[in-house]
Amino acid sequence: MRNYKLDNDGIATTRKLWMGIDAHKRTLHVTVIDEDGDLVLSESLPHAKEHVVGLVRRLEDAEIVAVYEAGPTGYKLLKWLEELGCDAFMAPPTHVRQKKGGKKIKTDERDSYDLAEQARAGMLPAVHALDEETYCERQVVRTRGQLVKHRSQLKAQIKSLLLFHGVSAPDELKANWSKQYLRWLQERPTGNENLDLAIEAMVGVIYSLDKQIKRMEARLRQMEETQKWADQAELLRSVPGIGALTAMLLLLELGDVSRFERCEEFSSWLGLVPGEWSSGDGQNKGSITRAGNKRARSALVESSWTLISKDAGKRAVYERIKAKSGAGVAIVAVARRLALAIRAMLRDHKMYEYDALPA
Length: 359
Known about the structure:
Blueprint: E1 16-23, E2 27-33, E3 39-46, H1 49-58, E4 63-69, H2 76-83, E5 87-91, H3 108-120, H4 132-164, H5 179-185, H6 193-224, H7 230-237, H8 244-254, H9 263-270, E6 274-279, E7 282-288, H10 294-307, H11 312-325, H12 327-348
Parallel strand pairs: 1-4, 4-5
Antiparallel strand pairs: 1-2, 2-3, 6-7
Helix pairs in contact: 4-6, 4-8, 6-8, 7-8, 8-10, 10-12, 11-12
């Protein structure tokens, strides 16, 4: 592993270079290629700012385009590279193509080279980088989602446990996670000391999760009322089916929609476009790609179920497509139209307009 903190040997060049970085917690593997695709260097170094500084300075006056996959290492490396004058960006992992040969080969060296090569070919889109404060705000949305998911998993585990041991709740409490049902679960419903202890422990975690979820939701409602978000949140809340929590989720996940120049680009980023397999004269379109932001996509689909009960135009679209392709395809089509409407609303600062269905 090269010590770039101490290395001052420069590589004389004024060319444009592409730098692919395979980033890990403790190490980076960097591959640099030139305009002709020829290898300039391929080496590992510690994941520390002083070593990144040393590496970039070693390349002297070159114009550097640097890329690494978005992931658990975050945007810290991106900031370092930008401070050093690099044209740096993070690429979404779903868009990085893995080369396939006769044998499966995956190394840090190959991964970093593939990133550099694909960046040189202009094949990699950039992950939209937020400012640090917005990243932290978005974490509230994502943490709430993780807590809700964990709570749902615990509830499913309890139901499975009761079913396995043949224990049924009273008729008035079945399929109901009310306070009364949770209280019944804590009143030793099985009669077995060990099993009841396990259930009681899981119910205790559910109570704790409920408390933390409410804290996250309260913070999101506070954010919605701030000067930073109030105007945009009001626009989104004019859509039937979008409340305060969904509005903040969409704003924090979508970011600045003005970066999408075309509707197709926005739909693709959300994963709301059909996949396609075409060869020669054959063409086959399948289900949506699901390659984009799953949180925003899920929120749009959920909101669309309410929207079609309020908006006459969207209801007509839903019924027409449902008759041909089924309810699942129809609601995704409505979600795509809703996404494009939201893009236009945020871009033009206009409320949602629709013909209301009769009550």
